[in-house]
Amino acid sequence: MMKKIAYFAGGIAVAASMATIAGSFTAPNTFTGGETISAAEMNANFDAVKTAVDDNDSRITALENGSGCPTDMVAVGPICVDKYEASVWDAKTDGNQVPCDASNPCDNTTTTTLYARSVAGTIPASNITWIQAQQACANVGKRLLTNAEWQMAAAGTQVQDDQGTELCNRNAGNGIQNTGSHASCISDSGVHDMVGNVDEWVADWVVTSTKVVTDQVDQDDNVLVVRRGGRYIDTGATIFTYYASRRLDGVEPNGSGDIANTGFRCAK
Question: What pLDDT digit, counting tens, does each position of 19-53 carry?
Fold first, then answer.
């Protein structure tokens, strides 16, 4: 019986070693050969292994698919970028999608904690402030792309085929459509809908004045906030479409003005 317990303890050690490969892991109990151990101690070790494996599931899956990125993202140079324009939800997993649209702005009066997700076949957030967008990314361990990163992720996106057929949602009157519904509107890296559908906030703010900018940046006409890619009503949008908007143009970081067609995506 003692020998069987020792072998069993050895099995726990092997399991602990395997968990360490997935990520940082420390077994709560250690044993030596021939030592009598309790069921509670064994169960504690197994619970710790399970927790470590569960916590590292996303990374293991990413390593298996060869990209080094979670399955809802793709590798773009040294970073991971969401495959799809972000939708926002009231939980990291499961939960309910929060409507951010023309009738339901996700602005600075929103009290629901927002979590950004990259999900195919959903209407993306399209009436959300820069502040809410960057926080929704942060709540899932991600961030907004910089302008340079956005350009890198968009590279290779074709807006028309050789016959002039539109590949992206950039024709007036179509409305905002589900993520990924234009399967050929995809970049060389595998990022969908970089052109059209909704404008996308990027991290950059541009200051056009040499004067000191106060903490009330939303009231300063000299602070511009950057959106990329154009929206569904911008028939001429391309991967080079760039808006740096000031308050007088109706778009600010805090969302004052018309942001009904502005969304985002995340990176890490």
Answer: 334 456 788 888 788 888 888 887 887 777 776 76
Q: What is the mean pLDDT of residues 60-82?
A: 81
What distance in Å separates the CA atoms of residue 125 and residue 31, rounded to the nearest whole number? Answer: 53
* The pLDDT of residue 201 is above 80: yes
**Is 261 in contact with 232 (CB distance < 8 Å)?**
yes
Is the separation of the CB atoms in 169 and 181 below 8 Å?
yes
Domains by residue range for the chain, with CATH: 2-55 (no CATH), 67-268 (3.90.1580.10)
CA-CA distance, 175 to 146, in Å (whole number)?
Answer: 27
- Does residue 228 contact residue 111 with C-beta atoms inside 8 Å? no
Give me 112's structure tokens.
């629901």
What pLDDT score does 51 carry?
Answer: 67
C-alpha–C-alpha distance, residues 232 and 239, integer Å: 14
Q: Are 48 and 88 in contact (CB under 8 A)?
A: no
Token representation of residue 2: 């003692």
Instruction: Report whether 123 contacts 176 (CB < 8 A).
Output: yes
Report field, pTM of the whole predicted structure over 0.90: no
